[in-house]
Amino acid sequence: MLEEFKPTWMVKSIYSVLPEQLKAQGIRCVFSDLDNTLIAWNNPNGTPELRQWMKSLSDAGIPLIVISNNNKRRVAKAVEPLGLPFVSRSLKPLSFGITRARKKLGLNKYEVVMVGDQLMTDMVAAHQAGVRSILVKPLIQTDKWTTQMNRFLEKRVWKLLRKEYSDLHWQEDLNDRK
């Protein structure tokens, strides 16, 4: 049960996930949570670092697709300035959104990675879908009210994870295995 929460990788920032490292892992597509992963939940414009990272993925031929629990209107408004495709109402921690997007693209499970900032939704959904996962630190330390309960529960899960898996640590990038 506890392993459902364990990410494949823990990288401090999404901007440190390099296309060449993804390709070396056989990853052909990145699925990403939206709020506090790609953009701060209270600032939908994104950052120059995000745009540079998106460009590096695009240049490498790696699509980036947003997988969000938010409704279609909210996600469409948020990603419109970024020009990203998305799946809304993905029902994370269930696997529906990830599986739907993966099958639509004709990709195998090992060719996809799910990036997110929450154990309770993003990491569990990745496990449920059978894809690898990257946990990143939230862009900002505040959350929408709907996420605050998850963060409370997440603290308890973290204690158990650290006790069970002593090798869990934040990495600088995918190759930083201490």
Automatic annotation (TrEMBL):
Keyword Hydrolase: yes
Superkingdom, taxonomy of origin: Bacteria
Gene Ontology molecular function: phosphatidylglycerophosphatase activity
Name of protein: HAD superfamily hydrolase
NCBIfam families, sorted: HAD-SF-IIIA, YqeG_hyp_ppase
Record flagged with keyword Transport: no
Keyword set, alphabetical order: Hydrolase
InterPro entries with a match to the protein in the record: HAD-like_sf (IPR036412), HAD-SF_hydro_IIIA (IPR006549), HAD_sf (IPR023214), PGPP1/Gep4 (IPR010021)
